[in-house]
Amino acid sequence: MGVTAAAAHQQPPEVGRTPEAIRAALLPEERDAFDADCRHALGQAVERSSLQPVHDVLDHWRRIATVTRHDPAAHRRMLARVDQTLAGQPPQRLHTWDELRTERGL
User: Fold this and answer.
1) Containing H/E element for 6?
2) Which ranges are annotated Basic and acidic residues under compositional bias (predicted)?
């Protein structure tokens, strides 16, 4: 079954605002980074006597969790491309618009 244009443009499902909800919506391979960021933010909160670092980290990871929940496979592909780029591997060659139109008979 294909995806309709309307379904493709739907907003990703909402992720709760608690650390537990955010962590649950992340890919397993990202949870350690989330935990480390939360621990660091808690330390910053103590040093600054402000919860703003915690709010900032949770907002950042909530955006990632929302995108992940919308399309986990696409998020994994993006992470793989980042890893390849950081390892100095050139990205796979992308098609030009002309190549895509030709390939699809347009």
Assistant:
1) helix 5-8
2) 95-106
